[in-house]
Design brief:
192 residues, mainly alpha, single chain
Length: 192
């Protein structure tokens, strides 16, 4: 496997066509090995062959190993990032396909994959599906209540849904705070 993978690495003395021939050779006989297919997909993406990268990742995840949570997450991300370069579909269609793959990862992980929750939330927000984003953020905050990405997304989502903070919520009565602190200090000093 390592020898097959090493053929994918570009060498400065090889031309692009030599690398492509080497890539094709390395894939022969590996169509049933999801690890090799995923690795080849990443290398293809790094080389700028986005359509090939998506096809390889799709084959690795959907066809060969449909129970791999991280594979589904990666396929969702690759679809979202490279989908425009690899197809003629609209950005909305590509984002929807990405959500489908990310949802599969969430289903396999029983909604326990925090990274996938973050990505799913971001794409929902981009599609202005703020209610879906809000529900996914709630799921994520059950796993990691102090997650800064989810908390930031929660603020943006609540704002987009029209939530307004109560009047005076952010006003602090400093005079009252100081007086209550002094009273507390007096109580402590008189009890000693």
């Amino acid at each position: 496997k390592a020898l097959k993978y090493s053929k994918l690495l570009p060498y400065s003395s090889h031309t692009r066509s030599t690398r492509d021939h080497s890539n094709a050779e390395s894939l022969q006989g590996t169509s049933n090995n999801p690890d090799t297919l995923r690795q080849c997909a990443v290398v293809q993406a790094l080389q700028g062959n986005y359509s090939e990268a998506l096809q390889l990742m799709y084959m690795a995840v959907v066809v060969v190993d449909p129970t791999h949570v991280i594979g589904w997450r990666t396929l969702g991300l690759m679809q979202y990032i490279y989908g425009n370069a690899a197809s003629k579909h609209s950005s909305t269609e590509i984002a929807e396909a990405s959500l489908h793959y990310l949802q599969k990862a969430l289903d396999l992980s029983d909604n326990g994959d925090l990274e996938t929750i973050r990505y799913y939330t971001q794409i929902c927000m981009e599609l202005t599906r703020f209610k879906d984003a809000y529900h996914m953020i709630q799921t994520g905050l059950e796993i990691a209540p102090g997650d800064p990405v989810l908390l930031t997304n929660l603020g943006v989502t609540l704002s987009a849904l029209g939530y307004k903070a109560p009047d005076g919520m952010f006003k602090v009565n400093y005079k009252e705070k100081i007086e209550s602190t002094l009273v507390s200090l007096d109580e402590i000093s008189s009890s000693v």
